Amino acid sequence: MGGHQAEPGAIVRRSMYLIRRYFLLAGALALASVLAAPAAQADTLTDVLACERIDFDSCAALLQAEAEKTKLEQGLVAVLVDASQPAARRVKVAQVLAAIDVRSASEVLISSAQTLQGKPERVDLLQAAARLGNAKVAPQLLDIVEHDGDVRACTLAAGALGILHEKKAVAALIRLVGRDDAPRLQAEAAHALGMLGDPQAIAPLLALASRPQVYVPARVQAVDALAALHSAQAVVLATQLVDAPTRDIGRAALRVLQAVPTAWTEPAVRFALETPGLRGEAARAVQAMQLSGCGALLLQAMAAPDLDVQERPWVLHAIGKLQTPGAGPALLKQLQVATAEPEKILLLHAMPEVGDKTVVPELVLILQTAQKPLNNHIIFALENLTGQRLGPDVVAWRKLAGLDKP
What we know:
Blueprint: H1 8-33, H2 37-50, H3 61-67, H4 69-81, H5 87-99, H6 106-114, H7 121-131, H8 138-147, H9 151-164, H10 170-177, H11 183-196, H12 202-210, H13 216-228, H14 234-241, H15 247-259, H16 266-273, H17 279-289, H18 295-303, H19 312-321, H20 327-337, H21 341-354, H22 360-369, H23 374-386, H24 394-401
């Protein structure tokens, strides 16, 4: 999708992800510094290969492996090329190399895959090489989706072809989208078509997304692919799917409305702002469509007791970016009733975006009794609202806010 700027919601999500990863990585590095280097490396390699799944959410050791990847590379490659190692263990090593982005290992993955010729694990190694950006595996992967009858192999290969943006795979992936007997393969093929960005895929993706009996993740991937393709034809379908019984489909439909902003879809967005589970994506749609008339609904969504914690950042970001009238007092009121510290921090960071300086005196009063780390975020809000850099000096803030006048 070259030429399109990243939407603000995506920037927020990426920022939150990087912050979380930063603190986790900092903790991992601190732990590593107190361990003897050889022992720590051996322990990390053992721990990461003991994980049932190789991803950052379920394998805590993977973060440490990422921090030590230069030191661990030799040990991982040694396991990978050792033909006496069980194939499943070599697959896990391949997944680790891809997850921690050891680009220099991609050629070894390809050569090791040849030693597993005829075995299903071969595709795992080819997929790992594709994740590392090695386009040499594209012909082999394309051959798999065109001729291999194994559903799992085709699923892995389809995803890898999407990662590589292999345009020659479009026709084969369109055929896989029609595989009603293999719903997970359908979902992966739809996702890959969205990544390839070929308009030929729009019609089959619309057909897949329109069918209620289809496996829900496959429908979601089809709708998301239509959003990635900026399909204007999908907008009508998306307005109908916002009210789908499954919230995942409704959220995907709202992502289409974000990708193809259209004025007449505002009623669907308004409906979503009032619907639990849809408010976050609806707020992003409000921002994409610049629906300034939805300000009151955004403030209601912010104060809704059933607002999901994952949705709150999007709602607050939309309130700030649209300069919603009355947002300053509403944010302050929500800050006073909020009990969870993460929610308070989000509210404080939204206040400078709104730019309402009338909240400054009340923030100064809150600062007087606030404890760390919350007081740091109050100072952040005050400094960015006023342009003054007074730090933790409460007396100076009181004077600035006019609280000490006779």
